[in-house]
Design goal:
Strand 1, helix 3 and strand 2 form a beta-alpha-beta unit. The chain has a 4-stranded mixed beta sheet with strand order 2-1-3-4, with helices on both faces. The protein has 2 domains: about 110 residues, 3-Layer(aba) Sandwich (D-Maltodextrin-Binding Protein, domain 2); about 250 residues, no CATH class. The longest helix is centred in the middle third of the chain and has 41 residues. It has about 425 residues and is mainly alpha-helical. The protein is built from 18 helices and 4 strands. The protein is elongated and about 100 Å long.
């Protein structure tokens, strides 16, 4: 690679990573995730930890043994209080003196309707309130089902549904996998467009300031374009890797902490298998690289042919609107990854970075289609580089009226 290209890469990379914006956005992303997700959940759980000691007055004489184990598993200290005429007054006194957080009164009406009265000294958190309600309702249902001779435990556990597909179609409707696939595709969309736009703005800035005339006198125009794309891409890759490592650290440290505080809050058995492993992270990074090269080449050509930022935004608008299609298709592709429509849309190179990710996470794509998609993206990168390089070579030194499509075609043929 030319020494001039390395010089441009080094300048573009160092200029951006040393900026305050890069440091703030790189460190601020993980901190924002920590503040918006982990910290509120942590304090929500901590709030529930204060709601611990609970007495149960079982006037029905059949519900306590069913409710107590469930509440103990949720971190509550449960004790049984026998029914007597002044039991509510006595327990009120204990609660106000700080010996109890509260108490539950169950009676014959609870057996019929599931209604119960919970006396507490402080308002329970929504999670704790749902826990209490679920425990009472489940205990009543178990009792009534056992009276009818039904296996209550098997029925209330959700039963078992065996699914046998008559074709090779595979779908993913599990919530954790759905959100990993959807948010990953949307994140790729945002990051790729953001850094491709940075390439366009850098090109436009040098063109409008006429600095490019001095630079082009000592190097080939396509070397300048290549250096800008690789330099900005290296910045994006650096930031992406920092975010991925930070995300793993947050997950590795945050989830065990929350689980230890409240085992019922996070279904670890379903959440952990849905988290991306090393192979998935590698795929994610590769999709970013190919997507960035495709769209940065197009944006570099836009920056070279335009004279103002307003013109550039108007020209790039069709590209942005085109990308609405894969983002709108993501949820459909996740649920039905093996349909012909999902396959063809995901193999279209400009859509592949987003839809291939969605199909892989949902578990509905053969390996050969992944390889084919990367091969098609590689050819598209080379084609865009060839066309964009010719437009860049002529347009970077042009000023005045924005070229028409016939003029652009003439540039490509004659450059």
């Amino acid at each position: 690679m030319s020494v001039n290209v390395w010089a441009v890469i080094r300048r573009e990379y160092l200029q951006r990573v040393r900026s305050k914006w890069f440091v703030i956005s790189t460190l601020g992303g993980p901190l924002l995730i920590l503040l918006l997700m982990v910290v509120p959940a942590y304090f929500l759980v901590r709030g529930g930890q204060a709601e611990q000691k609970l007495a149960i007055v079982d006037g029905s004489n059949v519900l306590y043994e069913r409710i107590a184990p469930y509440l103990v598993n949720e971190g509550l200290e449960v004790e049984e209080e026998r029914w007597y005429p002044d039991v509510v007054t006595s327990l009120r006194k204990e609660a106000t003196e700080g010996d109890l957080w509260g108490f539950i009164v169950l009676d014959e009406l609870t057996l019929d309707t599931g209604e119960a009265i919970v006396y507490v000294t402080t308002r329970p958190s929504p999670i704790r309130q749902l826990t209490l309600q679920s425990a009472i309702t489940r205990a009543v249902m178990e009792y009534q089902l056992e009276r009818l001779g039904v296996d209550a435990e098997a029925l209330l556990s959700g039963g078992d549904l065996s699914l046998e597909l008559l074709s090779e179609e595979r779908t993913s409707t599990e919530e954790p996998q759905f959100w990993v696939a959807y948010l990953g595709a949307f994140f790729l969309y945002m990051v790729i467009l953001f850094y491709a736009d940075s390439v366009m703005r850098a090109t436009l800035e040098e063109k409008t300031s006429r600095i490019v005339e001095v630079i082009i006198s000592s190097m080939e125009p396509w070397h300048l374009m290549l250096g800008k794309i690789l330099g900005v891409g290296a910045v994006g890759l650096t930031q992406l890797l920092v975010w991925i490592v930070s995300g793993f650290l947050i997950v590795a440290g945050g989830i065990p902490l929350l689980v230890s505080l409240s085992p019922g809050l996070i279904p670890v058995e379903t959440l952990l298998p849905a988290l991306p492993g090393i192979g998935m992270v590698t795929l994610f990074v590769c999709l970013f690289i190919f997507g960035f090269f495709m769209y940065s080449g197009l944006h570099a050509a836009v920056g070279a042919m335009c004279n103002t930022d307003q013109e550039a935004q108007q020209v790039r608008l069709p590209m942005v609107m085109l990308l609405v299609i894969p983002i709108a298709m993501v949820s459909v592709v996740i649920v039905q990854p093996m349909t012909a429509m999902s396959t063809w849309f995901s193999l279209f190179p400009l859509f592949s970075p987003f839809l291939i990710w969605a199909r892989v996470v949902s578990g509905g794509i053969p390996a050969w289609q992944i390889g084919l998609s990367f091969l098609l993206m590689l050819f598209t990168v080379l084609a865009i580089a060839w066309i964009a390089g010719r437009i860049y070579k002529v347009g970077i030194l042009m000023a005045g009226k924005r070229p028409t499509l016939p003029e652009l075609w003439r540039w490509v043929k004659e450059a």
